Amino acid sequence: MHWQLEKVELMKILVTGGCGFIGANFIKYYLATHAQDTVINLDALTYAGNLENLSLVQDDPRYTFVKADIGDAPTVNRLLESHAPDAVVNFAAESHVDRSVTDPEIFVRTNVLGTHVLLEAALRHKIGRFLQVSTDEVYGSLGATGLFSEATPLAPNSPYSASKTAADMFVRAYSHTFELPTLITRCSNNYGPYQFPEKLIPLFILNAHGDKALPLYGDGLNVRDWLYVEDHCSAIDTVLHKGTPGEVYNVGGNCERTNRQITETILKILGKPDSLIQYVTDRPGHDRRYAIDNTKIRKELGWEPQHTFETAIEKTVHWYLENTDWLQRVLSEEYRDYYEKQYGGR
Ligand code: NAD
Ligand code: TYD
User: Around 268, how many Cα atoms within 13 Å sit in the side-chain half-sphere?
Assistant: First the structure.
């Protein structure tokens, strides 16, 4: 593995999907915490990508944006050739489970084939580190007890998690067969600023603020393990710099909540009545419970989350209230059609 980075302090990194929720938070976090480093952001600007999410850094000389699809091999290769980054961090993905139920194909194209294009290009250009941003959803669903560790067998249930699992398997194969220095992070559900309002927390903030019904799937007792997005960013940064190539690191903050608890918390912060909750038909194949065992990243790499749920959810709700103009701009015609299709008949 002669091309693996010896020194990981000074870096030029290529981030994909940097105009989405976590990618945008990551780029801002990274530029703020690594004064000497530079970031190239490759993003196709799908419905979930918004250049405005990065307006704070758009004039920073250490930052470059390129509009491109990760599945476009000639462009990806050209970029790696001309910028010669030390590392690739792959956030680019179709990320919403409900959309994967109605239209799985784009999930295969971007999440599986797109990741494969990046791996091939990374290999050809001898990239020193390839970090795949994955998800705890690859492990499937837990019963009432137990946690996902890195050794938990992969058992994805939705087209989204199946596509992320397939990508993880290609990353593993490129590490094992071709000795590409890869890293995989598998994080639990994130919340925070700039999350597209199709996901539970921003959607329910938006609806509650407008006195609209909150469509809670099934009995509302499905459990997710919530992490503030900035803590996910610091975990990725830690793994990028300190992780051992070939390894997988689970990321989570020991913060399990039922969807009903999340909903009640949002309503309470906004001073809105519980009568806004509307129980609707469950999501097909809805995973019951996710929960992460974060021992490995804590013990081996010294990462710790810095935010508690109580303060960070409050901060998040206020961010959306203060950024209603951002919300209005991301709520395109496409989004309104999606909303009608997803919730109209429930
Ligand atoms: P997002 O949907 O908000 O953003 C995805 C970004 O990828 C957008 O900017 C979009 O334009 C871009 N993109 C999509 N297809 C592309 C393509 N073909 N080429 C280039 N860019 C493309 O997603 P997110 O919530 O920020 O998630 C980012 C990553 O983190 C994903 O890989 C997701 O699987 C993973 N993840 C998300 C969570 C979560 O809670 N949101 C948790 C764990 C892991
Ligand atoms: P989501 O934010 O879509 O993330 P994921 O499915 O990747 O975990 O959903 C989080 C939880 O909230 C999940 O159990 C599904 C549930 N949910 C609802 O009950 N109603 C909704 O309108 C949405 C979008 C999600």
Answer: 9
Closest ligand 1 atom to Cα of 49: 9
Q: How far apart, in whole angstroms, are the C-alpha atoms of residue 218 and residue 280?
A: 6
The DSSP line for 141-168 is ---SS--B-TTSPP---SHHHHHHHHHH
Measure 274 CA to ligand 1 centroid, in angstroms.
Answer: 31
Distance set, CA 105 to CA 111, 139, 163, 329, 340 (Å):
10, 21, 10, 27, 21
Site residues for ligand 2, CB cut-off 6 Å? 97, 189, 199-200, 203, 215-217, 222, 224, 259, 283
160 is catalytic: yes
Q: Residues 94-129: pLDDT tens digits?
A: 999 999 999 999 999 999 999 999 999 999 999 999
User: Cα of 283 to ligand 2 centre, how many Å?
Assistant: 9
Determine which one of 29, 30, 139, 160 is catalytic. Answer: 160
Active site residue 304: no
Q: What confidence tier does 2 reach under pLDDT thresholds 50, 70, 90?
A: very low
In the numeric block, the tokens 């999930």 are attached to: 107
Complete domains list, the chain, with CATH: 12-192+226-251 (3.40.50.720), 200-222+258-284+308-340 (3.90.25.10)
Catalytic residue among 69, 86, 137, 198: 137
Active site residue 300: no
Of 167, 81, 178, residue with least CA distance to 121: 81
Ligand 1 site residues, Cβ closer than 6 angstroms: 16-17, 19-23, 43-46, 48-49, 69-71, 91-95, 110, 114, 133, 135, 164, 187, 189-190, 196
pTM, two decimals, is 0.97
Q: How far is 190 from 201, CA to CA, in rounded Å?
A: 9
Each residue's pLDDT tens digit, 211-268:
999 999 999 999 999 999 999 999 999 999 999 999 999 999 999 999 999 999 999 9
Q: How far is CA 234 from CA 228, 263, 300, 302, in A?
A: 10, 27, 15, 11
